[in-house]
Protein 1
Amino acid sequence: MIDPRPASERTLIAWVWRNYLRKRMPFLIVALLLMTVEGSMLGALSYLMQPMFDDVFIAGNTSAVYGVALAISGVFVVRAVSALSHRLLMSWIGERVTAEVQSDLLRHLMTLDQAFFQVHSPGNLIERVRGDSAGIRQIFASVIAAFGRDFVALISLLAVAIYIDWVWTLVAAIGTPLLIIPVVALQRLVRRTSRASRAAAAQNSNRLDEIFHGITTIQLTGSEAREAGRYRQSVDEFVRAQLRAEAGSAGIPALIDIVAAIGFAGVLTYGGMQIIGGEKTVGEFMAFFTAMALVFDPLRRLGGVSAALQNAMASVERMYGILQTPPSITSPVPPRAPVPAREDTRIELDRVTFAYGMEPVLRGTSFVAEAGQTTALVGPSGAGKTTIFTLLTRLADPQQGAIRIGGYDLRDMDLAGLRGMFSVVSQDAALFDETIRDNILMGRIDVSQSRLEEVLEAAHVAEFLRHMPQGLDTPAGPRGSGLSGGQRQRVAIARALLRDAPILLLDEATSALDAQSEALVQAALDRLSEGRTTLVIAHRLATVRDADKILVMDRGEVRQQGTHAELIAQGGLYADLHRLQFKTEV
């Protein structure tokens, strides 16, 4: 489970800094210097208002026209160049950091066991990786830029205002204390509502993932309206949560505008009387007025940045929670047992108990699968057959008992080395939206063309490749949808052949195929299992009659074991299953 406890803001900022920002410090320094230049230009612009009004407009000093015009033009040019430069630089840093965070999240998620993925849906996790990572980008787009550019702009503008008249500045800021309590309250509201908004967004992604995965079932059952209604309900919940978050974010700039109204009213009243009385010039007032008018723009952004920071922290907190979730299946350091040799792959389950949550699946299961032989697992659904495959490959660990290969406990072996011992072909062949070649090679670059062609022939893939428009480079489609069931199975078998692992796990590999496809796939499986320790899960007993040993499972226990002939002679559950399927006595 992802740790639900909220992390402190200091912890989250320290995590982002330590893992992603510190290594990019030189680029951040350059960007901050450019922000400082851009921010200071507003102070320079407001200061130039005094000579423009007093020397040019009122005094009519023609010689000052060119100098003031050149100075103001220079301010805008410098501001434009510095703004463009730091925005491009910060965008580059933000995108690189976001990509790195996404990669780290995915890499960590792939270390977690099956129990984690049973609790957290794919849509929810996609939103964690893709949606929440936008919080990192927001830090660069809003938070750092505001603290760099807008803070300097605020300081430079206030410096000009104080230089002209500190009393006017004090009058303009008279309403500022009114901001403190409401802003603190709004910050807490934004953090809370942003967290709820991200959770609602994850639920939306989960709904879409379920709809697109189950589109065939939805269409065949006529439940389009039901699913559209469920998604609309989920979207409405997200909209409500998002609006609450946006309301909190918009509240801080609105409060600043109210304070600005109070300050300007005071300055216009007090300063206007001084100008009328000749104590101040129009140029001084315009410079002050420009500075104070401009000061509320960066002040508003700085006020909004606190809301943006809380919004970003809600996303960062969710990502941090994933990365703080430790994998429960790990390699011992150093490994306490070697990965067995190819010829030493005897599999032994010794009183293994396993449960998903509170529901027991295996209840003290024990058996032996001899090296180089085929062992079949049969029995009703829910007997625990597939769970045994899950435990053998350490996608989960048993709560009690031990599993050994070659006499060594799996938990004492290097995890990658252990999983390298297995090739798996299941009923639902897992293909990716890549070419057939990519789905077979799975990233390997050490396979010669002759070896690849040998595998294609052995798996009967070459037979259908001749009819493919691009041959081996034909896209398989999303989840292999561009291929038939039999073609997908043969691609999966070719992948397993190329892997050349010493242990083969077959999980209902032919149960969903027609007779012609089954014959081809079965021939490929027979070729694949030669010289390997093979475990087969099958509901159709005809496919395992020739197995060296058949284990009959029911309710998480091995009830019978032996050859087909022995089990028929014994009677019991296997004989009952056989009669049910074939309706004849052997």
Protein 2
Amino acid sequence: MSFNASIEHWDIKAHANAESLKHIANMVDISSDQNLPELAKQALKLCDELQGCSLSYTEQVELFYFRANAWSAIRHANHSAGENVWAWDQTELMYEVYWLRSAIRHDGFAQIEAFRQCQILTNAGNLLNHIGRSIEAIEYWQRALRVIPNFAMARGNLGFGLKSYARLLYDRSHAVVIMKAAHDQLLSVAAGEVVWDSLDYQCIRNLILSEAKDIAGHVDIQAAQLIELDGFALGRSKVERAYRRWTLDKNLFLSPLNELGSYSIAAHDVLLLPDMVSPIGKPPSLIGFFNQMKQEYVSARFLYWQGQSAEKTHYSDRDVSLVNTLDYPLYSVHIEQIKIAFRMAYSLFDKIAFFINEYWTLGIPERSINFQSVWYLKDKKGKRLQPCFIAYENLPLRGLFWISKDFMKQNDSEIDGSESADLSETMEPDADALRAIRNHLEHKYLKVHDSFWAIDGGHEKTDSLFKDTLAYSLTIESLEAKTLRLLKLARAGLIYLSLAVHREERLRAKNSQDGFVMPMHLPEWRPM
């Protein structure tokens, strides 16, 4: 089937929203099936027109989903073979992820049918895995399976994702455990009760099962089944056990095994840098740098837990005289702990950028390094991707590059009062809010309110006598949610950094002309 005039020309105003959505979906399907990127671009123009109409919540979610699929059709036409697959800076990918996330974050997402929810979540997982963000991909597939536990494509892709994640690890014992989990997920699509989203699923099913067979050919599945995942002690005191159980449940331990769930085997921050080769006499500065980033992360995590789990007023807040501004303000040391956790987690990304600049010898001046700039070279020709990264086959490092797309661009005018935000280079719908919170925490004034207060996520715009034009306002629930999301992102970033170094060390060893490497063991540091 090829597109014709009736498909090309569609009057949005002359049709009901449901009819237009169906027409756009048809255009996107044809553009994908027949490799017609121009038709997908026409579908996007119709999406723009329909966006201006009065849409219900569920119609808005559907529209976002079709936008993502249109960008997917364009991406496959432009980046389907050779080096194009490894091209790092793909605008199509950025918009594809952005619109899927917009659908998931929308208030109408919970109102659409469960089957569509699973399709959107699974597609988001597939995309994130493709760009190297394996950890977040696993989370999306797991979310899909919480909606429909037997959704076949989520099971299959989770199996694929766990397998690729295991292959990135430097710790082979962890890799075996995760490979076993991947095998089980892949094999589960053969169960009779699984639900497929396509009538012609046999080829996909056979491909998934062949992956399970491949794992079984390289991993002793029976021996892996004997490995206990649970039953390990979580601490000496009731408080410590509560903290570690919470960390497991939120998937915040620096252990790849935490991706499998809340198993106590993962209740340790075991992540380190892999073995690294360096010239004789060079101090282990990068190891010390990673130690510090790791300690800052686990400290931020603990401060957040303390702040959000507190049930009573802390003694340090007693006899502190503050004025009630009648807009349901909240003040306490526990809220400040959450704010500190947010700032610490946010700052880790620029530190990761400093690490990347040093380890990959990019030569960027210190004052010019941040998490958005480290990937790019600036010269007379303008800003362009560092030549060493253009099609560099280091998946975890590419994942870090795409995490940088979750943040709003650094703006020189932020501190002097400008609130303008250029979101043209981000794939995170909430990017402007994250940067605004960080900016106000560092330089201005963030006000936290009880949930009774109407404003959440910006400046009060009403004519209320009690409006606060200086503060960026948000509820305590919103601050907690955004801080937790930032902690998860920081955790993923540290894991990707370690795995990216591992990949680079393997590449360097493969290409090295040196004939002799002397091992040097550094002991584990113990607290005094």
Protein 3
Amino acid sequence: MNAMQFPLTRVTIGFTFGILFANYTTFLATIVGFGCITFASIFFAFAFYRARKQFFQDHLFGIAVYLMSFCIGAATLMLHSATYQKSHYSKLISDSNTEHVAQIVLRERLKPTAYCERYIALVNDIDGTVSHGKLLVNCYKNGLKRPFKIGAELQIRGEILRPTAPLNPDQFDYGRYLKQKSILGQTYISSQNIKINPKYYRDIFYYADRLRCMILDNLQKHHFRKTELHVLAALILGQQQDIDPEVVQDYQFAGAVHILSVSGLHVGFVLLFMQFLLKWLPNSKRNSYFKLSFTLIALWSFAILAGLSPSVVRSATMFSFLTIGLQLNRQTNVLHTLMVSLLLILLFEPSFLFDVGFQLSYLALFFILWLQPLLSQIWHPENKIVNYFWQILTVSFAAQIGTLPLSLYYFHQFPGLFFITNMAVIPLLSIIMGLGVLLMAIAALGWVPNLLVRLVENLIWILNKIISSIASAEQLVWKDIPFNTLMTISSYLLIIAIALVVKKFSFKTMAMVLVAILFFQGSYFSSRWHSQAHDQWIVFNLRKKTLIIEKNANQVTAYTDADFTNNHPLNSYLTNQFCQLKAKKTIQKLMLFGQKKILIVDRLGQYPQKTSPDVMLFRDSPPVNLERVLKTCRPKILIADASNYKSYIALWKATCLKEKIPFHATDEKGFYRLEN
């Protein structure tokens, strides 16, 4: 039976589109969620009653089901949104520079930065008012003896900042990323502003963290090398916080970074391991229920131990449905199971839909289940070993094809040697996962055999060496690939059309491929034309530096005193605008952009009198009398970039307000752009 013929599959599709609609159209979603849901319910009841009376069914009931599930999806996201929750802490914080006292519980430790330990915390109280919500807490390392444990109850004092828009063009929108994770504020605090409650909030996350810490401590006592131990912690426990950034980069360039995130591959290994352990039990009704219960407990215990990330929750839910189906001796359509698990997860946590790992995980599994059988039919090797590697290759290709457009959209790079990586890594990873799970289970009991420690340690060392050698071929890693939303959608339509042709060649499917190709070409050329149709002059927001760019068609000239790095804000701009860097020049005193005259004043404070510029830019804190400058030059707008002292910027802002001259500070309002 086709998965699309199952009612819950159609409900899931409508429900998912409802969540997307509510996320991107807030005002309209409010009307749909709290107005149209009543109409949808009445319409559904009418269609259901009508369908029961009809001998020949029409499409009215199907439309009612889609409409009802769509409205429920929109309402579900809104009910989970802080906008409609009166007790959320975001309603109590001020936009001004005001300190708040908050009672929090640490829920999750994130990857630390050079200066801060980072946590996701649950708020219990703000300034004496009971409230709730997730808060991103950045603790400065100075004065902090050691990282806090999960479950620690803290009283913190500091300013709570709302998520802000990116300060540079086409930059990653971190504020939106936090909002999609239901995090509507963050704070930076020093150890002096933290009071620690000696008691811990003892929930399931606290005990899972204690167990993880105990396992890793026991392995460290047996001199497990740090680099390999951190990789093992990522593979088995889902803890990536302490992995060396160079190791992560190697995995990215080799196309194997997905194995560092606990997902379906890892949960599948746990399921196979449990089936192996319980294989000796004789088949009976009583033992069947015992196997089912024990396997489900093991799957969800592993999920909790791995931190209940979206991909782990997805995998554990889906494999739970599969396990129940197998134990009850019922035929299970895996694609249908996948859709049911998606619906169940989004009912409880609709924000998971916007998690990148969650999206990639579902897409990879969907295309493995749908596309891999088509690929495996191309060749049927008789040799078992050759067939084993052929199956690995087809699974790898199916997953890569399914996730490629979304990966290009988010990361703008493609590892050319991904198939070699998977062929080399998956057999070794199978051994590491089996031995690693066994080692972790033994370490949790406090007994760690040295032979097993050395074996797993050396296997991970070999894994890292293989990954490093593949990643060293950087010329086969294509970077900075421009890819937007329209191109992503058209790419998936093209992939689906080609797969349908492979499955069943006909005039109709070939026509779909041709239309999809035209759609993709149109999306690419229209995106490129739209980005290059206007010339731009932009002042970037760069800490302690100045960067000015001038774009003409697809050529960009940069005027700067800064060096370009891999994560430079200019790189993302060039990629998203389909442009390339033509030249890098020193910053000039006077520039012309179209009909506009731009005067730039640096640390020397020298400027020509009575120039009447359209734009005046201050950089490197020029020691000038601004009132005199404004009277003699009369600029139409004054810009101060992030290379200036903040105290100077505050004085300039007040002076411009007094003189009624528009003022733009890039560290407050973000980049400044002129366009022709």
Protein 4
Amino acid sequence: MNIEQLLKDNVVKAIETLYDKTINEKQIQLKQIPKDVEGDYSIITFPFAKQLGKRPDEIAAALGTQLLAQMSVLAEAKSIKGFCNLSIGDSYWRGFVKEVLQDKKYGTQPANGETVVVEYASPNTNKPLHLGHIRNNLLGYGTAQILEAAGYTVKKVQIVNDRGVHICKSMLAWQKWGNGETPESTGTKGDHLVGKYYVLFEKHFKVEYNAWQDSAKANEHLQQWLADEKVVARTIKGLEKKGKPADEAALGAFFFKEVFKNKYFNLYSELGLAAKEMLQKWEQGDTAVRELWQTMNGWVYAGFDVSYKRLGVDFDKLYYESDTYLVGRDIVQDNLKAKKSIFFQKDDGSTWIDLRNDKLDEKVVLRSDGTSMYITQDIGTATLRNQDFGMDSMVYVVANEQDYHFKVLFKILEKLGHKYAKKCHHLSYGMVNLTTGKMKSREGTVVDADDLMNKLVAAVQYESESRETLSGLPEAEQKKIWEQVALSALKFYILKVEPKKSMTFDPKQSIELQGQTGPYIQNAHVRTQSVQRMVSNKGIEPIGYQDYELEEVERDILILVHELPNVIQRAASGYNPADVANYLYDLAKAYHKFWNDVKILDENNLAATSFRLDMSKAVAQVLRTAGTLIGMEMPNRM
């Protein structure tokens, strides 16, 4: 049994024995004692004083004596000003090691009967996955794994954004400049080929837009904007605050880049008008457009599948925006017909919901022409998922620029009467960049996911071959280990950061053997396996260790091993894979210290050797269990 639960059960029993009164387990405040203070756990007795009619220091002293009599696993109990400080004896830890080795599911919890849907990935089909998608996928998959370990039934899903003008940009560019090339004819991964044409569209659009800026019509729009003194004053102030020039040329450049670009696309651009016309044809079911759309999306899906498999993530069900975008519209329109509709229409025919009493704002859910907004599509998709899975809650893994969107979505779902709505969670995460700066999809400067994985594997291979640590293994096994080390390095480096924080990914630092890195953790596992091989090579026969007295470093390791169930519960309740990642680092660090400080194979003390071998097995088991939760693999050699 978990020592904390064992202590609580015995405190209840001791109070009943001492005072003939029953306390609620929830009254018991049990705290771990800091390392610089003697003892392992402290029981705070102040909450019992009124009920028992005794001073806290009296209760602490009597409780310590009684617990020592009741619990053979306690080594010592001391009363200090209303705190009963307890030291756990070695007998508990020796038994605990055996319990862990007997329980291959140690740390995970039994099913709790609740179903949670976790949405992540959700890519657009006009470009390949990039570094931002990697963080999204790893956060989503890690969260799903942790929730499952905490006892939830988990359904992993994604919504594929497969319709819209951005998709048509790639399609139009391929029609104009593709010359019929395919992934097969070019040897190019399908998502990369389609992404190439998205970038090409933007390149040609930029040339077109730059040329138009010299026209009389462009100057007319610029002068109208410059005539608005308040807007220009705010713009000048903003530019100066950023240390940028605010002269006439700078204002003109700002206007065309930040203010008018989308309007130009919709009003004047030949490419823009052609893309919008293609979207209209798609919505009307035009055969040729639909066939091209299916073909190019098929290329992208095949490419995505390769990336997902390599990254180690998967899904239970995929939803496609092209299938779901009308569902939300129908829900809104049906609700409008109800006597007490939560929606209302404005004079222009658009449909809204008023959330001002909920400290939000009015939100449009249908345009005046009856077409859906993104929020409306999300309403429909959530409804479909509830129909599919009967979920109790849902987690959306989406970047933090959508914080307000999800506050509105959850409130609308609640007002529509969905029971799961109050248990929906937006796992909001910050931007991720490389040390070289930010990424821009339209300009083709994103950090491509496939390229990043390839470069990390190549870097690990170079380091491994220069050290010749795997030279005796078959080539196929070496390649497998390089892949395990590189991708685990990527996963750990991404997930060790709290999701809400923005981060910078440093590829070189991520694969280092020292510091807070994936390889540092994997090397701890390699050492646990190395010591088992050494025992076999030396012919050492383990014996019992029932009287073995633990070293302090061994107790430190076992306290960490003991924490795994609590870490999983904490990570699940906070939707925070960083809790597991940083736990892995702490455990690896403790084992590395043990490796350096203690003679593991002590032929003069076989009891010590036997205990340390079993403890190393327990550490290996926990490293694998916790590593699996965040997608890390633990090689036996590296």
